[in-house]
């Protein structure tokens, strides 16, 4: 199973989309391991968006991400990173497919409602930046796991 980090960005908070976004991951069968509301700092955003630091939108992006607190979540599932990225949709709302979060709720290339880790490596880094280990509930029993996965998939949890 893979873990991935999702943020509801300030525009998602302002538009009241937290419940809608969480519902989409829940109904897919993903398991929620961690959840909190938090205010992102300059220091954290410098690390988070390290790869964008030379872009002309870097300052605007950081200011946008500090506008309100964000809701941060860790979700787990088979191929969790790519599954969550498909539910979220491509970066720009005006290109995202209908049915995805950005496709259904977004029109902007910058104010795109939600962030989702783009690789297993990025997820590990982002989870580490936002959560202490004791804030993540790795092992609680999911009562619906037997409905979501086949026996072989459950036995082979690392996939
Ligand atoms: P995300 O893909 O989650 O992470 C990088 C973010 O940078 C992206 O979402 C957008 O919010 C933002 N972004 C990307 N391109 C632009 C742009 N041209 N102008 C402003 N913000 C952008």
CATH topology-level name: Alpha-Beta Plaits
Q: Gyration radius, to the nearest Å?
A: 16 Å
Hetero ligands? adenosine-3',5'-cyclic-monophosphate
* Protein structure class: alpha+beta
Main sheet makeup: 4 strands, antiparallel
Shape-level CATH architecture: 2-Layer Sandwich
Strands in their spatial order, largest beta sheet? 2-3-1-4
Low-confidence stretches: none
CATH class: Alpha Beta
Distance between the termini: 5 Å
Q: Average pLDDT value?
A: 96
| Bulk shape | globular
Number of domains: 1
Contiguous helical run count = 9
Helix percentage:
40-55%
> What's the CATH H-level homologous superfamily?
Nucleoside diphosphate kinase-like domain
Explain what you see.
By secondary structure, the protein is α+β, with helices and mostly antiparallel strands. A four-stranded antiparallel sheet has the order 2-3-1-4. It is built from nine helices and four strands. The mean pLDDT is 96. The chain has a single domain, classed as Nucleoside diphosphate kinase-like domain (Alpha-Beta Plaits), CATH 3.30.70.141. The radius of gyration is 16 Å and the shape is globular. The structure holds adenosine-3',5'-cyclic-monophosphate.
